[in-house]
Amino acid sequence: MSDALKNVIAQSLECPVCLNTFIDPKILSCSHTYCKTCLDSLLEFHGNDQMLLCPVCRAETQVPNQDDKPQAVVYCQDCGKYLCDTCHNTHSQWQDFIGHEVLAMGEIVSGKVSVRRYRKCRKHPKEDEECFCSDCRRFACFRCVVMEHSKEGHGVIDGAVFESNHMKSIEDFKSKASKKRSCFQKYVDFIDEQKERVSNVRKQCTDDINKAYEESIRQLTEKKEILIGEVKGRTEGVEKELEEMKKSAQEHITHLTTIADVVTNMTKIPLDMDALAAHDTLCQDLQEALKQEDPDYRQPIQSSRKGKSVSFQRNVGKDELGLGKIANAVLAKNIALPTKDSMSAMVGTPDGRMAVGCSTGGLEIFSADGQHQQTVFKDVKIHGVGFLSDDRYVILDPSNNITLYTFEYTKLNVMFATLSAGVGGMAKLTVDSDDEIYVSYRKAMKIQVFSPAGGKAIREICDGYTPLQTTGYNDHLIITSWETIRLTDKQGVVKYKLTKPGYRPYAAVSQGNTILIAKVKDRVGLVSIDEYTNELKHIKNLVIDYKPEKPEENWYYIQQYRSGEIAFCTPDRLYIFH
C-alpha cells in the first residue's frame, strides 16, 4: 500500500476532536463520528449530560441516560458517514443508497481497502466534493459551487486547501492548549506550594498555641495562688481583729458572771465582820465591772467593712489570662454640691472635715459621712484654698490674688506679689507642712513659692511642663501635669515620675503618708484610685473603674479625710469612698 493511500485512510479514521484514530467511535444523530472519550469530555465541558452539540455541524444530539451508543461497523464512501449495524441495515434498504460503496471498519483499519479522500456529492453522485464554502461552512462539488455558491459573499476555496488550513489551525490550537495547560499546571503547582505553606503555618501555630496553653496554665495556676494569698492577707487581719474583740467581750462576760455568782452566794450564809468586808470589796469590784460601757458595735462594723469590701474583679473583655484583681468594693456616697459646675478647689480642714471651694463663691464644708454642714466665704470667689498651721485660711481668687483669713473668717492685711491671670493664666494653690504657699500657673508654666508673711515669691520652680496641681508631701512636692505625675524636691528637681497615657491623674497624700492617685480615663470618665509609695511604686488598687456622673468634665480633686474616707470631687458632685 502506498504512503499516500495510508495517509488518506488515516485521515478518514481520525476523530475530528482529538485527531487520533478512533477509539470506541460513536455516531451522533447528524452522522458525524467521534471517540467516546472525546464525547464524554465535551459533555463534561459544557456541563450538560443530556444534550450534545456536534463540534462540526452544531446539530443537537439527545444523549441517553447511559451513553452507550452502538459502535460504527461500516463506512459509506459515498455518504462519508460511519454507520452502526442498525443504520447500515437501514442505509442498505434505501433505493438511493443501494449503489453506495460501503467499506467494513475491519478492512479499513487493516488497510485492505482504501477510502476516498472526498465524498460524492448527494446532488451530483458522480462528482466529488472537492470545494469548501467558508460562508456556508460545507463541502461542495464544482457544479454545486457554480449553481449555489457563486453569489457575492460566498468564499469558495479548494477543499484540500481548507483541510490543510484547518489542520494547521487545529495544530495551532493544540499548541496553544498545551501552553495553556502548562500555564494552569504551574498555577496548580503554585497553589499546592501555597497550601503547603499554609499547612506549615497551621502546624507551627498549633504547636505555638499548645506551648502557650501550657505556659498559660502554669501562669494561671501561679496567679490563682497569688490571688488567694492576697485575699487571705486582706481578710486574715480583719478576722483577727474581730476575734480579739470577741475574746475581750467573752472575758468580760466571764468576769461579770464570776463576781456576780460569788457576791450572790455569799448572801446565802451568815457573815462575820471579815466576810462582810470581803463581800463589800467584791460588790465594789462588781460595780466597777458594771460601769464599763456597753459594747460599741461600730468597732466590729468598721473592721468587718474592711473585710467585706474585698472583692474579686474578673477580667472580662480584657486580659483574661490575668484572671482579675483583688480590690475593695466601692461603697460611695454621691453628694450634689450646692453650686453647679463650679468646684475649683478641695482641702481637708484642721478639724477633720472637707472644704470644697467654688469659683462662683463660697467654701462648702462636708463631714466624713457626706453631711453638708456649712458654707463660709459666700461672697468670695475661690480658685484655691489651703490652711496654715495656725488654722488661718489661704484663699486664691480667679485673678490669682492671695488673701489670708483668720479661723473666724476675718480678712488679714497681707499682700502677695503673684502673677496676674493675664500673665500667669489659670492658677492653683497649696500649702505645705512648713507653711510655704505654692501657686502653680498653667500659662506661665511655673510655680511660685511664698512665705505667709506675703510680698514677693521667695523662689520659683520652672522645668518646662504645665503644673496643673501641686501637693506638699513631706520634704517634696507632688506635681500633676496632664498625663504625668512628678515627685520633686522643693527646688523642683524631679526624683520620680509616673505617666499614665490616656488618663488624667490627680494626687493626694494619704493619712498613712502614702500617695493616693485618682486616674480618670479620657472621654470615658471611669475613675480608678490607687495607692503608691513615696517612689511612685504601686501598692494596691482602692477603687476600680467607678463611673461618676458627668464624666466628660475634666477637672477633679482627690483628698482623704482624717478618718480614712477618700473624697473625690467633680465640678458639681462630691463622692466619698469608704
From TrEMBL:
Pfam families this protein is in?
Answer: zf-C3HC4
Show the SMART domains listed in the entry: RING
Every copy of the B box-type domain together lies at 49-105, 116-159
Keyword tRNA processing applies:
no
Which keywords has UniProt assigned to this entry? Answer: Metal-binding, Zinc, Zinc-finger
- InterPro entries recorded: 6-blade_b-propeller_TolB-like (IPR011042), TRIM45/56/19-like (IPR047153), Znf_B-box (IPR000315), Znf_C3HC4_RING-type (IPR018957), Znf_RING (IPR001841), Znf_RING/FYVE/PHD (IPR013083), Znf_RING_CS (IPR017907)
| Protein name, UniProt field | Uncharacterized protein
